[in-house]
Design goal:
The chain is of the alpha/beta class. The chain folds into 2 domains: about 220 residues, Quinone Oxidoreductase, Chain A, domain 1, CATH 3.90.180.10; about 140 residues, NAD(P)-binding Rossmann-like Domain (Rossmann fold), CATH 3.40.50. About 30% of the residues lie in helices and about 25% in strands. The strands form 4 sheets. Strands 3, 5, 6, 9, 10, 17 and 18 form a 7-stranded mixed beta sheet that branches. A 6-stranded parallel beta sheet has the order 13-12-11-14-15-16, with helices on both faces. Strands 4-8-7 form a 3-stranded mixed beta sheet, with no helix packed on it. Helix 4 packs across helix 5 and helix 4 packs across helix 10. The two termini are about 20 Å apart. InterPro entries: ADH-like_C, ADH-like_N, ER, GroES-like_sf, NAD(P)-bd_dom_sf. It comes from Cutibacterium porci.
């Protein structure tokens, strides 16, 4: 590999509610058990909006971006037998397990204590320090790996090599939108062949839930959204039926589709009280509601106690997936064409256009997933 530059361009959040600013930062250095990626692409995720707007508290200045594909350009120490090598193209999972805490030892990467306590609260990696600095030496917080930059550092526990044949740009979405969807369908819902499914909100994660539900044999699969263009795309991704919740009585329509029963599994993929209510309203007796979307800050949603108790319904939260096991499975499924990342990525932006991308995400006009292509 050619020698690395000493500085890079990055989109920096200086104050919540303000636009991201393209700044020059030092190229980070990987430490023990970490890899340095030259970023190919970074996905734009709805959960970023909560940090950008200040609804979720996070240290600033910060670099966001937690859905990444890239090329390994440097290895930290301790990775001699990891199977990773310089020049490999990889996908990086947003949920970066430390591999050592009680949860990680139990295989519950999705509950990794240091990830939540150090990265999500303090913007650091697991030695308590960030890898990002300005040229003058001021620290910059990292949201996951901070991939809205030309280079980023990722713990080796969270990267998986990309097979030849996968579009390296569009494969950025594998580490969040696809992995989160897989975790919801495979882990949260434990979906069984032939079960009926509703997906409430069909953005980046919801689109992938449709794909996984379809390949795992769900039927019917009902996509629920307020945008006709998203519902049209949902039909191409596996939905057998669509319901526009801005125009129809969702509960009545779902009961018609399911012969009066409701669905056995309802996925909620946005994280607002209205979509929680919709997901619960379409649930059958004995059904499972799987919320996936993150709310803005400390947000609550109402649950009808007697209905939940008498009808034996369950609410099973699902955050991400078990990165070390599930991300390789997702990558393999994409490589075999079981899921199609190219259908989910609808809009590509340059780093200079990052605020335009988030504006589309914020106003709901983004169909599927948008990505930042670092080569543009």
């Amino acid at each position: 590999m050619a020698s690395l530059p000493t500085t890079m361009r990055a989109a920096v959040l200086r104050e919540p509610g303000e636009p991201l600013v393209i700044e020059t930062l030092n190229v980070p250095k990987p430490r023990h058990g970490e890899v340095l990626l030259k970023v190919i692409a970074c996905g734009l995720c709805h959960s970023d909006l909560h940090v950008l707007g200040g609804a979720i508290s996070f240290p600033v200045p910060a670099v966001l971006g937690h859905e990444v594909s890239g090329v390994i350009v440097e290895l930290g120490d301790g990775l001699d037998h990891s199977g990773l090598s310089i020049g490999q193209r990889v996908s990086g999972g947003f949920l970066m397990p430390c591999g050592e805490c009680d949860a990680c030892r139990r295989g519950r990467d999705d509950l990794c204590g240091p990830f939540f306590e150090m990265n999500r609260l303090n913007g650091t990696l697991y030695d308590g320090q960030t890898r990002l600095f300005t040229p003058s030496g001021d620290p910059v917080a990292m949201y996951s790996m901070g991939a809205l930059a030309q280079y980023c550092v990722v713990p080796a526990t969270a990267v998986v090599p990309l097979p030849d044949g996968l579009d390296p740009r569009n494969s950025a979405i594998l580490g969040c939108a696809a992995m989160t969807a897989y975790g919801a369908v495979r882990r949260g819902a434990d979906l069984r062949y032939g079960e009926s499914v509703a997906v409430v909100a069909t953005g980046g994660v919801g689109s992938n839930i449709l794909q996984f539900a379809s390949v795992m044999g769900a039927n019917p699969i009902i996509a629920i959204d307020v945008k006709e263009e998203k519902l049209a795309e949902a039909k191409e991704l596996g939905a057998t039926h669509t319901v526009n919740s801005a125009q129809e009585d969702v509960r009545q329509r779902v009961l018609e589709i399911t012969g009066g029963r409701g669905v056995e599994i309802a996925f909620e993929a946005l994280g607002i009280p209205a979509t929680w209510t919709t997901a619960l309203d379409v649930l059958a007796d004995g059904g499972r509601m799987v919320p996936v979307g993150l709310g803005a800050g400390v947000q609550t949603a109402g649950v009808e106690i007697n209905r939940t108790v008498r009808r034996g319904q369950s609410i099973l939260g699902s955050y991400g997936a078990r990165t070390r096991v599930d991300l390789p499975a997702v990558v393999a499924m994409a490589a075999r064409g079981v899921i199609d990342v190219n259908r989910v990525v609808h809009k590509v932006f340059s780093l200079d256009e990052v605020n335009d991308g988030y504006a589309m995400l914020r106003d709901g006009s983004m169909v599927g997933r948008g990505v930042i292509d670092m080569s543009l």
